[in-house]
Amino acid sequence: MRDVVVYLARALVDDPERVTVEELPGGRGVTYEVRTAPEDVGKLIGRGGRTVKALRRVVKAVAPKGQRVEVEVLAEGE
Amino acid sequence: MVEADTERAGDFLEGLLDALDVDGDITTWVDEVGGHIDLEGSDLDVLVGSNGETLDALQELTRLAVLRQSKRRVRLLLDINGFRARQRERLVTIVKATAEQVIRTREDHEFQPMSPAERKIVHDAVAAIDGARTESLGEDPHRRVVIRPT
């Protein structure tokens, strides 16, 4: 699953090498923290959060059944 | 240009299927509407989602991924296992029946707001019918088609 998040996030930014994804299992499911170059944060979030919403929808669709997933976008170092 | 971008879209989706470790056939083609990418595979319905919501999200990500590479915005339409093709057929059936009603009653019919792709389906379907014409009203996301008698 992490590979899928990495793949999608890298395809959407100008500086794919600076994209990292951390998988954080929690009581309510798994959170993927996507970190990217500060200049690319806006590209992953999109206008009005449109891109991150699409990203979440696709990641949730391919997650194992019954597993809750969340995707958060942060700048590297955050 | 559209051809190259449609190829890029296909490559992006192929990479996604690889990352997901699922099989699928990818067909790309171009017409006057834009570039089309059709995915077919028994494990891919999950990417359609209820009412095509996931398909729309994946189409959006595909467009953005291509935009990132080519720096230009092209019209790309993604379909999975014929979902949009079936939706289109259903819409055309409704539009034809509605146009006949408009011609019979001489009263306008205003549809609910639709996406640009759906509106084009309505315009094209009515253009083939004598006695009715279409117009778009309002601004996105409330833009909608009205069928009027001629």
Tell me about this structure.
The complex is a heterodimer of chains A (78) and B (150). Chain A is an alpha+beta fold and 78 residues long. The longest helix of chain A has 13 residues, at 50-62. Helix content of chain A is 41%, strand content 28%. The model of chain B has no long low-confidence stretch (mean pLDDT 95). Chain B has a three-stranded mixed sheet with strand order 1-2-3. Chain B has 150 residues and is of the alpha+beta class. Chain B is elongated, with a radius of gyration of 18 Å. Chains A and B meet through α1 and α3 of A and α1 and α2 of B.
Number of domain modules of chain A = 1
List the domain count of chain B as a whole number: 2
Q: What is the approximate shape of chain B?
A: elongated
How many angstroms does the end-to-end distance of chain A come to?
22 Å
Over the alpha carbons, how many angstroms does the gyration radius of chain B reach?
A: 18 Å
Number of helices of chain A: 3
Structural class of chain B: alpha+beta
Low-confidence stretches of chain A: none
Mean pLDDT of chain A: 94
- Hey, roughly how much beta strand do the residues of chain B contain? 15-25%
- The count of DSSP E runs of length 2 or more, i.e. the number of strands of chain A, is 3
Shape designation of chain A: globular
Concise synopsis of the structure shown:
The complex is a heterodimer of chains A (78) and B (150). By secondary structure, chain A is an alpha+beta fold.
